[in-house]
Amino acid sequence: xxxxxxxxxxxxxxxxxxxxxxxxxxxxxxxxxxxxxxxxxxxxxxxxxxxxxxxxxxxxxxxxxxxxxxxxxxxxxxxxxxxxxxxxxxxxxxxxxxxxxxxxxxxxxxxxxxxxxxxxxxxxxxxxxxxxxxxxxxxxxxxxxxxxxxxxxxxxxxxxxxxxxxxxxxxxxxxxxxxxxxxxxxxxxxxxxxxxxxxxxxxxxxxxxxxxxxxxxxxxxxxxxxxxxxxxxxxxxxxxxxxxxxxxxxxxxxxxxxxxxxxxxxxxxxxxxxxxxxxxxxxxxxxxxxxxxxxxxxxxxxxxxxxxxxxxxxxxxxxxxxxxxxxxxxxxxxxxxxxxxxxxxxxxxxxxxxxxxxxxxxxxxxxxxxxxxxxxxxxxxxxxxxxxxxxxxxxxxxxxxxxxxxxxxxxxxxxxxxxxxxxxxxxxxxxxxxxxxxxxxxxxxxxxxxxxxxxxxxxxxxxxxxxxxxxxxxxxxxxxxxxxxxxxxxxxxxxxxx
Length: 498
Known about the structure:
The chain is of the alpha/beta class and 498 residues long. It has a domain of 282 residues: Aspartate Aminotransferase, domain 2 (3-Layer(aba) Sandwich), CATH 3.40.640.10. The protein has 14 helices and 14 strands. The strands form three sheets. The protein has a seven-stranded mixed sheet, sandwiched between helices.
């Protein structure tokens, strides 16, 4: 166990090193830029060691009632603004981690504050409905003007959920029910007495031995069912019983992409052949394949649009559903509202799951046969939360008003070009740079990753890692080119401190 925990212990120790008292960086808006937050700080401010005395004291108090071992930093949200996160000691950090990719339009966004204080929100909060039984009179209107307004192409229905893990698990349930419905001959064919009796004993045929295929290094959540498709870190899964479900190898691309085009094409071809072989041969029939557009927790692993088009073709040919997990990549992060829009698929995925930047969760679908043939089969008390759906609607309004998807695409290209320059200058610290043309969803490998992430706070940046060696950028959609200038300068300062 000590070897599993050692990296986080190193990170925590490094975070307590002496830090610079202040930064001289001044943010200058670039030509044509208009700040989204006029009251946003012009630059990071670091005045104490991080964690400072107030943060240490508050963490010790919290530790009496709550497990603090995974804490990054205690945050003063009343003093956090736009792209800047504040701790309890007056330090302001440029936040390019954004609550693990979950803050879309900045801390204390004024429009979301109006949404949060509206009469509609008040009613939703104090009368939280059990949506499956008692939805509010305007629930269809909330969905149609919010999350369904941005539904992926080919999808016109949504099942709302409480978290990304929950969204994936309910999508898996839908896939299993659809698979068995086809085997029976259609939704009108009722269950047999044997199925009804055997499922109460967790036995076949009522509880069939079916599976969901995922990919090595993939991450799809930490709940009981989703864990069986999560393959990124052992610590997520240890001691938890798992389903007998298969995994395929995600393509391992070489960088720079343009220098390894032929090798990478062969790698993706091999991976697709493995997927089809597993579908045909695995002893527990595969009902669906779940895949991330970019494997986030597993190390920011990419594949080409051609690979995903091939995956769609393989799943269609074998009557297997394709679930695209857009929990982390969705809602504008890659310069498209949905990352799978980059792929130019011949037919849409069967389901697309979402959460994080949406501030709510669920899965989209278009095929009406993915609705269970009877009520209460896809059901729980809350089935999501209307208050979070209202926030998502407000987020969508803000994204549209400020053209934030376009901003993320252009800022991402600008930031990537700056990182390419740094990679040439410091090749030992910025390796396998990836994410070009994917908005600000950018990452690179570094041999001193844990030290890099910890040292970042000392120069005024909150940043995250993924996989064993990757530094990942997850800025908000309101991250602009002048923020990129600060980040690029800060990265160079970090490197010089390592």
